[in-house]
């Protein structure tokens, strides 16, 4: 099955000049979604990325991260924007193209020494994934790798990430 054929291109979203890779068409295709998660699981296992927890970033990382965690028999931990989690949090602020943003995770979600795999739908410049990595490492977790459905190679996001294995299924 060709995953690229299930990903829709939306020109000029969210602003002119951006070509948005829309995964909602992949999500709505039952056979495509099953194939995607099965392939993702297989590639993560082949890369020997054994993790106690899969960490997914808001919001599309929740979808793929939770499905992958189920397949790997790992726990799933959501990383969210500020003010979305109800208990005490660890947080990290990171730079964006214009300004800053912040990510949070519950303080009791991860324990020091936990093996963590970070998952999202897409890596572009790598800013959010790099900030998530810093957050889990700040807690004292062992980052075993990253998993992405889509990688935009021209944006060189890998160079902004720690030196751990990276699995991506589709490259543009």
TrEMBL record:
> What is the reaction catalyzed?
AMP + diphosphate = 5-phospho-alpha-D-ribose 1-diphosphate + adenine
EC number(s) reported in the record: 2.4.2.7
Q: Which terms does the record give in the GO molecular function aspect?
A: adenine binding; adenine phosphoribosyltransferase activity; AMP binding
One GO term of the cellular component aspect?
cytoplasm
Q: Which InterPro entries match?
A: Ade_phspho_trans (IPR005764), PRTase-like (IPR029057), PRTase_dom (IPR000836), UPRTase/APRTase (IPR050054)
Q: Which pathway? A: Purine metabolism; AMP biosynthesis via salvage pathway; AMP from adenine: step 1/1
Q: What is its main location?
A: cytoplasm
Which enzyme type, at the first EC level? transferase
Keywords (alphabetical) are: Cytoplasm, Glycosyltransferase, Purine salvage, Transferase
Q: Where is the Phosphoribosyltransferase domain?
A: 24-151
Q: Does the keyword Glycosyltransferase apply?
A: yes
GO biological process annotation, one example: purine ribonucleoside salvage
User: Where in the cell is the protein located?
Assistant: Cytoplasm
Task: Give the family from UniProt.
Answer: Belongs to the purine/pyrimidine phosphoribosyltransferase family.
NCBIfam families this protein is in?
apt, PRK02304.1-3, PRK02304.1-5
The function of this protein is: Catalyzes a salvage reaction resulting in the formation of AMP, that is energically less costly than de novo synthesis.
Q: Which named protein is this?
A: Adenine phosphoribosyltransferase
Which species is this record about?
Answer: Iningainema tapete BLCC-T55
Q: Which gene encodes it?
A: apt
